[in-house]
Predict the 3D structure of the following.
Amino acid sequence: MAVIHGRGVVARQPGSPAGVEDITIEDPGPGEVRVKMLTSGVCHTDLFAKEGKFGAALPYLLGHEATGIVESVGDHVSRPTAGQTVTLSWRAPCGVCRFCVRGDSQVCPSALTAQPRMKTHDGITLGRVLGLGTFADYTVVAADQAIPMKETLDPAATCLVGCAVGTGVGAALYSGKATPGSTVAVFGCGAVGISVIQGARIAHASRIIGVDIAPSKLEWAKAFGATDTVDAREGDPVEAIRMLTDGLGVDFAFEAVGTPQAVEQTIASCDIAGTAVLIGVPAQNSQITLPLAKFFFNRGRLRATSYGDIVAGRDFPLFASLYQRGDLALDKMVSERIGLDDVEDAFAAMQRGETIRSVIVFD
Ligand SMILES: [Zn+2]
Ligand SMILES: [Zn+2]
């Protein structure tokens, strides 16, 4: 093993364009693996990090949704092995905290990550988005963050399982526990919302209502399994959802926007004993108003989820097999395949609502 020189997309100043820079990638340490990237999806969270909203010190290596090949492994790593194709998880439960031992590893507060082993050409240690940093030729991650993935599957599709698809399908199946025959509303029909819609379809929900303000996203919602769509610019979406559900509201309402208004509308869209699931990351200090008596007498349920409550080691293979047998549409979520130099253009296209996912394909 030896230090590798490669290229990576680095955020240096909040709000400034992230440029491709020469970086160095050290050898993996004990319990770590170095991964040669095949593909990496461009996600809103990378934009969030680029704007300095994680509060961590820049410079930052962007990217956190990727499939690659294990190039080398550090000491005490029995799996994965060098040469294996892996999809990266930004949560690797520690296995020993009180949450992990009681079976709630999805809320593990001590998740594993690698030491920061990437540096800029001028020797500054790089932070990495969600402990990964995948807009780079190579990255170093904790061995448990690298989940073996079938090498025969298209890596541009499987990388999506590492963030948007894992989060959205997981939210439908695990956080909300959507049931057969149930009614579902999804606020926000970007990559995560589309994945919630697919999860609800896999759970055999009878009615799936996609809500957005962008016509393109309402079209996507339909293409991925929504039975109805509501354009939230054309009036109160809560009222529209009631009209579509015999005046009742839905059994499960998901929010993939992160604004107080969307959260309030999501909660208000639920029927008696309905479940509202919050997925979108809210701004610090944001507040909502909850009509408490209505929520109480409705016996409302409200929960927040991170990463769709998935357990990567269990769910990445599951979602890959759902993809392989045609139940989970991943190929058509890949709007464009781009190079490392095209990330800023991909951010702009995402913000304009033109792309579900731009996926970087590495040489
Ligand atoms: Zn733990
Ligand atoms: Zn993401």
User: Anything to note?
Assistant: The pocket of zinc ion (ligand 2) is lined by residues 43, 45, 64-65, 163-164 (CB under 6 Å). The chain has a mean pLDDT of 96. The CA atoms of residues 182 and 205 lie 5 Å apart. The first strand starts at residue 4 and ends at 11.
